Amino acid sequence: QVHLVESGGGLVQAGGSLRLSCAASGRTFSSSYAMGWFRQAPGKEREFVAGTSWNNSTYYAVSVKGRFTISRDNAKNTVYLQMNSLKPDDTAVYYCAAGLRPAGPYNYWGQGTQVTVSS
């Protein structure tokens, strides 16, 4: 199994920055997994935010491209999401996920971390 734990969420003013972390563990976890970040705002569907393949190819939703950066440290089994120029529309619960390919499907999910951006 794979266990994912997110951290780094919080309250920030519009225009500010946050960095989310996701620590992966588990007997079957491998650095060959694709890792992704998703988010779900109240009353909305969960949406893809960013993903990275095992060899650090990256993919972004149009809404965050140029503002968010996904990265991974395979030695630490950790993936990060650096979020800059945050907007109130970025307010959501952010989830880390692991799967075989950045395009999905993602088989393993963290419990989520709340990000709130005030105007």
Could you describe the 3D structure shown?
Helices cover 0% and strands 53% of the residues. The chain has strands at 3-7, 10-13, 18-25, 34-40, 47-52, 58-60, 68-73, 78-83, 92-99, 106-109, 113-118. The strands form two sheets. Strands 2, 4, 5, 6, 9, 10 and 11 form a seven-stranded mixed sheet that branches. Strands 1-3-8-7 form a four-stranded antiparallel sheet, with no helix packed on it. The termini are far apart.
SSE topology string: EEEEEEEEEEE
| Average pLDDT | 95
Output the radius of gyration: 13 Å
- Beta strand count: 11
The helix tally amounts to 0
Overall 3D geometry?
A: globular
Residue stretches low in confidence (pLDDT < 50, at least 5 long) are: none
Q: Roughly what percent helix?
A: under 10%
Helix-strand makeup class = mainly beta
Proportion of residues in extended strands: over 45%
The major pleated sheet works out as: 7 strands, mixed
The N- and C-terminal alpha carbons lie at a distance of: 40 Å
